[in-house]
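Translate sequence into structure tokens.
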Amino acid sequence: MPTLADRLRRAAPWSVVRERDLLYIPLGADEIMVVACDSDGGIGPKPADAVPFDATELGHFAVRVPLLELVAAGATAVVVVDALSVERDPTGAAILAGVLAEAATAGVGAEAVTGSTEDNVPTTATGIGVTVIGRATIDALRAGRARAGDHVLLLGRPMSAPLDDVRVGDPEILTVPALTAALALPTVHEALPIGSGGVTSELLQLATSAGLGHTVLPDWPVAPDQTGGPSTAALLAVAGAGSALEACTALTEATGLPAWSVATLTA
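Result follows.
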């Protein structure tokens, strides 16, 4: 099965290669543009929102999903675009404050954040779409790097509103700096943030994209179909030379987050 790197090296400049939820655009000389996006609707402070939520925290969570996807892919975020289906003041300004704060955790300054608001039509529910554009080299990309024998570790606790009280700063949920620190460990081959598909779905994607099978381990800390909501956790493929317990300990020491062994990858 051709790897993502193989496909990109064969692709023409400015063509589009899709892998999982991301778009990869080769620019020439092994440089790649990577595009990620996410959206939220009916979550926020407006009267018709199905899930009441603080506007600034919504901004944080809306942008962290594509940011985490880019970091996991091996890319560096360059530009953040927020499309807000609300008026600029007060709701849009509050959401933007969260977007700017979260973008900063990935090294994206205010000058690289752009977007728009809806100031012509009154809105009674909150909507936001976020696109993040990043860059990478082919050799830095991580999709499909998992290997047979790797431990699959769950980093952070998957949560999703409204069943869980998901808040910025929760010590058990994944952050951009934590994922960056995890990927800096030489034993970590690949990472995949967990979204609305749930843990089992993402585990299958992780194995399949590397052409591997997997063996599920007992005693998971969450239900197999537990959603990660706004990417509150991630699966990591970690070299299997040591024990799974040692791998979990190293991840926790590097990130400050809980980690559990949930599977092994097989040929």
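Note: The chain has two domains: 4-140, 151-266.
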